[in-house]
Amino acid sequence: MPDSTLDPSQLRPAQPEPEPETAFGPLKSKVFRMLWLTWMAANTCMWMNDVASAWLMTSIGPSPLWVALVQSASTLPVFLLGVPSGALADTVDRKRYFMLTQFWVAGVATILCVVILTGHLTAPLLLALTFANGVGLAMRWPVFAAIIPEVVTKPELPQALALNGIAMNASRIIGPLVAGALIASVGSAYVFVLNAVLSIIAGLTIWRWRRVHRESPLGREPLASAMRVGVQYVLQSSRLQALLLRIALFFLHSTAVMALLPLVARGMPGGQAGTFTVLLASMGAGAIVAAVLMPRIRVWLPLQPRVLVGTATHAIASVIVAFSPTIWLSVPAMMFAGAAWITTANSLTVAAQMALPDWVRARGMAIYQMAVMGSTAAGAALWGQVATWNGIAVALAISSASSIVCALVAQRTVIDRGTEEDLTPSQVIRVPQMQHPQRPGRVQVCVEYRIDPARTQEFLALMQESRRSRLQQGALDWQLLHDLQAPEHYVEQIIDPSWTEHLRRFDRITASDVALRDRRLSFHVGEGPPRVTRYLLEE
Question: Whole-angstrom Cα distance, residue 116 to residue 358?
Answer without folding.
Answer: 43
